[in-house]
TrEMBL record:
This is GTP-binding protein YqeHrequired for biogenesis of 30S ribosome subunit. It comes from the Bacteria. It comes from Oenococcus kitaharae DSM 17330. Gene3D superfamilies: P-loop containing nucleotide triphosphate hydrolases (3.40.50.300). PANTHER family: GENETIC INTERACTOR OF PROHIBITINS 3, MITOCHONDRIAL. Transmembrane segments: none annotated.
Length: 373
């Protein structure tokens, strides 16, 4: 295998020895390919077992990606003349942020792409969202030349984005697409390729995190290329404590409905069995919750909440965390116009100042930010 043939789906080097590792392919299949028994004009057929299963049966076999490996790929960008497209999932902005991204990419220009705009309520204005995202990224020390909001999987590579790429391609012949797993990198790249060259879909996309394992270079012209990088997996996201079959409660694929609640003091809202929020306010308040529509939001009395949780976890309260675990409680003071975000799950917007107590599985991150919507 010294030719270094890679899987068209994930970019891993093929190997025929370890089915549990990236790039595994049956020796006979590879042999047929190398012997020209299958058409080399049709490289889409040469997928590793993992990508093959993903494409044909929607199955996932998780493969761990070393974070140092990821950092090595990213830090190589600093030495190149590259335009960096930094993808953010608009439904999970904090979970999409990559620590130290500015350091990795050196002086190269960065365009922030807020993807999956279609899952937010239709009433939300895209330019407002872009302004908000640019400000939030600025707080993380990221100075983007531009911030664009779009929906890659709705066939929308974004006129503005394509123009931006056009403007830079002369001076920056490589386009690096970076982002955490599942933000839609492969989907966006497919759209860009389609728009720039008229080619069809060549990169594996899936609903499961962790599909792209290594750098994939896709030439656009003789001098220019677009590069897909592996997505780092954020360990503090809710997806890590939920079984993949329950991702349908976490990852929206269509417009989420804003759910508004009027709350009295002493009330609690459960987010399925994945966490709950006690409201310690004295007056009535109103909140709006943005979660996957399937996720059960249940309001009850705080004083009865532990009994209710014990009886209803996995029944009324769906989904449930994968295994019994420790819970962490945190008291948070919230101001009007702020969101309390549960990483990888969703957020609650507050119109009044109040204090809450948030209960989450240990290891799942939360944050408070200026309201996204
Ligand atoms: P990657 O891991 O960053 O390469 O992400 P993929 O391109 O594989 O996409 C991850 C998941 O997000 C897939 O299920 C895509 O269909 C979905 N996805 C990508 N773009 C969009 C979008 O604009 N809107 C919605 N609703 N889903 C998207």
């Amino acid at each position: 295998l010294d030719e270094g043939i890679t899987c068209i789906g994930c970019g891993s080097l093929f190997q025929t020895t370890d089915p549990d590792q990236a790039g595994y392919i049956k020796a006979s299949k590879l042999h047929d390919y190398l012997a020209g028994l299958t058409s080399p004009d049709d490289p889409i057929d040469l997928l590793c077992e993992r990508c093959f299963k993903l494409r044909h049966y929607n199955q996932i076999q998780p493969v761990a990606l070393e974070s140092s490996h990821f950092q090595k790929i990213l830090s190589a960008i600093a030495d190149k003349k590259a335009l960096v497209l930094y993808l953010i999932d608009l439904f999970d902005v904090s979970g999409s942020m990559i620590n130290g991204i500015s350091r990795f990419i050196g002086n190269n220009p960065i365009v922030i792409v807020g993807n999956k705009a279609d899952v937010l309520p239709k009433s939300v204005k895209k330019h407002k969202l872009a302004d908000w995202l640019q400000r939030e990224a600025g707080k993380q020390g990221i100075q983007a030349v531009r911030t664009i909001v779009l929906s890659a999987d709705k066939g929308d590579a974004g006129e503005t984005l394509l123009n931006e790429i056009d403007d830079y391609l002369d001076r920056y012949p490589e386009i690096y697409v970076v982002g955490v797993t599942n933000v839609g990198k492969s989907t966006l790249i497919n759209q860009i390729i389609k728009a720039l060259s008229g080619k069809g879909s060549v990169i594996t996309t899936s609903r499961f995190p962790g599909t792209t394992l290594d750098r994939i270079v896709i030439p656009l012209t003789e001098k220019t290329a677009i590069i897909d990088t592996p997505g780092i997996i954020h360990a503090s996201q809710m997806t890590h404590v939920v079984s993949p079959k329950d991702y349908k409660y976490l990852l929206p694929n269509k417009e989420i409905k804003a759910r508004t609640f009027q709350l009295q003091s002493g009330q609690t809202i459960f987010f399925g069995s994945l966490g709950w929020m006690d409201f310690l306010n004295r007056q009535n308040i109103s909140i709006t919750a943005y979660f996957e529509n399937n996720l059960m939001l249940h309001r009850g009395k705080t004083e009865k909440s532990s009994d209710f949780f014990r009886l209803q976890a996995g029944k009324t309260l769906l989904p449930i965390t994968e295994s019994a675990m420790d819970w962490i409680s945190q008291e948070i003071k919230v101001l009007p116009g702020q969101d309390v975000v549960i990483s990888g799950l969703g957020w609650v917007t507050f119109r009044n100042s109040t204090t809450i107590r948030l209960h989450l599985p240990k290891g799942v991150a939360f944050s408070v930010r200026q309201a996204e919507i």
